[in-house]
Amino acid sequence: MIKTVLFDLDGTLLNTIDDLADAGNWVCAQNGWPTFTVEQFKLMVGNGIPKLVERFSPADARTPAQLAATLAQFTARYDAHKEDKTAPYPGIPALLDALKAEGIQCAVFSNKADALCGGIIAHYFGTGRFDAVRGNRPGVPTKPDPTGLYALMTELGADPAATLFVGDSDVDILTGHNAQLPAMGALWGFRGRAELTAAGADALAEVPEDILRYVQEQNK
């Protein structure tokens, strides 16, 4: 039985990679650093924005002070342009509506900064589709540490035995498993089948409708 579905954000609900890459490359260009392709950025994201900033920063620009300054630069640029190219993946809004119609509560659990998550979800999905939206908060370890996920499930009153975690990277599969949840991989995201399979995904979704079918099958 599945009564709650928890979703990763970037690469699962929203295709955010172009805006993330544009902001990252803008920062690199401003500082005279090498820039990267979108495909390279797909391999840098997933562990939170501070880790992304560290990954695109040259080795000689990774002192704590420099990383803090670069993080501030990136965050300001990204926040101003986070809706330029970002869009929901096809089929996601319909999936969320179908899950809601079946009485499934849905929530977002992301490594993106918490201050950014609520606004971006409201912009693309309106209000009412998610029972909670949580990004990374100060003092809470990022995924795949399950601490924040436990707190979210407690807040939702979600039964771990009836909760599914969905995401597009090994970080998400590990997050689910670290919290003793089944974890489903989204193949349309940033990483792909090989990584999700290697991480031990309990199921794979080719398209969003596969998530609905999986939930329906488990609830028969």
TrEMBL record:
Could you name the domain of life of the organism this protein comes from? Bacteria
Which GO-annotated molecular functions does the record name?
Answer: hydrolase activity
Instruction: Give the first-level EC class, as a single word.
Output: hydrolase
Keywords, in A-Z order: Hydrolase
- Which InterPro entries does the annotation name? HAD-like_hydrolase_sf, HAD-like_sf, HAD-SF_hydro_IA, HAD_2, HAD_sf, PGP-like_dom2
The cross-references to Pfam families, in alphabetical order and at most eight, read: HAD_2 (PF13419)
Keyword Phosphoprotein appears in the UniProt entry: no
Keyword Mitochondrion among UniProt keywords: no
What EC designation does it have? Answer: 3.-.-.-
Q: Which Gene3D superfamilies match?
A: HAD superfamily/HAD-like (3.40.50.1000), Putative phosphatase, domain 2 (1.10.150.240)
PANTHER family registered for this protein in UniProt: PHOSPHOGLYCOLATE PHOSPHATASE
Protein's UniProt name: HAD family hydrolase
